[in-house]
Amino acid sequence: MDRRIRILKRILIGALGSMTVFFIYVNVAGQSGRWQPPPHKNVFSPSSSPSAEAQWKDPGPYHVAYPRNYKFIMDDTPTCKSTTPFLILMVPVAPHDRASRDAIRKTWGSDKEIQGKLVETIFIVGLPGGADAELQQVRLRKENQEHHDLIQSNFQDSYRNLTIKTMVMLEWLVKHCTQSSFFIKIDSDMFLNVPNLVKLLLDPNTAQENYMTGLVWWHSPILRNPFNKFYMPRYVIAEPEYPPYPLGMAYVVSLDLPKKILSVSPQIKPIYIEDAYLGMCLKQLGISPTDPPDQNMFIVTPVHPLSSCSLSRVIAVMTTSIPQMTEYWWRSKHAQC
To answer: Which residues does 305 contact at the CB level (< 8 Å), separation at least 6?
Structure first.
């Protein structure tokens, strides 16, 4: 009987210990999205060596596996290496979406000089997935041999990894484009009126530093409905609203900001909503995004077709198809109110 009692005591003590560890873990996980790296350990640096790479852990459903020491495996573009563009058009695009890249190359991505300012276009991709991933990679390399405008990093390209894609894009800009003035991150399903954008950036009222603009959401609520696509539980972010940020469809940034954003990113555990995460980084920096002079410059839910007057004023607008984007580009050349 005594032996049985001793065994039961040991089992009880073990169970209590396991429960204690579990509740400590839940308590830690239940804190807000703010994250501090372990002391004396450089979790992320754009120039860190492979040996300094942080050990990968499953980020869970609301975060992404970043900071990490991702590598560029395709990067032979002359942009910012043998050229110094005033404005860089950065287009994150799915590896398989050759059609969108070709359409952009023939339309707004073909505008190379506006008002005497050099403009260049770069497409950024991650690793292709699916059963034909190897074939996609072969096609990407062949495409880049033709155009030399692709940069590719070794993260898995997916919708849930857009934050990684954005941060890797910032790394590339910090490494190569310190002499340039601005970049715009713009999705591949957008029409971009490059002359209107350059006109905005050359305006004396446009800040040259700490500048980020687009369609700014000032009081974006954090959605708590678990059935919503952008659901975010309170244990990840406790605040009721995200800090202000420009919608990810298109935002313009002065090229002093990428380095600053990267400098604070290790302090904030990255969520999968990439534009909201940039807003969190801006808040940490004490920097606010800027509304454009006219809200009609950036349109996320347009009423198609756009009028000639709208096309004469717009900078970036979401489109429904490649033919529509192409049509807007042609019409914008002669559009007026």
So the answer is: 324, 327
Q: Which two tokens stand for residue 236?
A: 């990840």
Domains of the chain: 64-294 (3.90.550)
Q: How many residues does the chain have?
A: 337
pLDDT digits (tens, 9 = 90+) for 223-261: 998 899 889 899 999 999 999 999 999 999 999 999 999
Tell me, rounded to whole angstroms, the distance of Cα 223 from its chain centroid.
20
The answer to whether residues 196 and 314 touch, using CB atoms and an 8 Å cutoff, is yes
Residues 6+ apart with CB under 8 A from 267: 34, 35, 36, 37, 284
**Non-local CB neighbours of 155 within 8 Å, separated by 6+ positions:** 65, 68, 70, 126, 127, 161, 164, 165, 168
Tokens standing for residue 298 = 């950036």
DSSP code, position 40: T
List, as one string, the DSSP characters of 116-135: TEEEEEEEEEEE--STTHHH
List, in sequence order, every residue forming a beta bridge with 316; answer none if it has no partner: 192, 298
Helices (H) and strands (E) in the chain, counts: 9, 11
Beta bridge partners of 253: 183, 212
**Percent of the chain that is helix, strand, coil (3-state, to 5):** 40, 20, 40
The answer to whether 277 and 315 are in contact (CB under 8 A) is no
C-alpha–C-alpha distance, residues 291 and 241, integer Å: 18
pTM of the model: 0.82
List all residues 6 or more positions away from 161 whose beta carbon is below 8 Å from its beta carbon. 64, 126, 155, 272
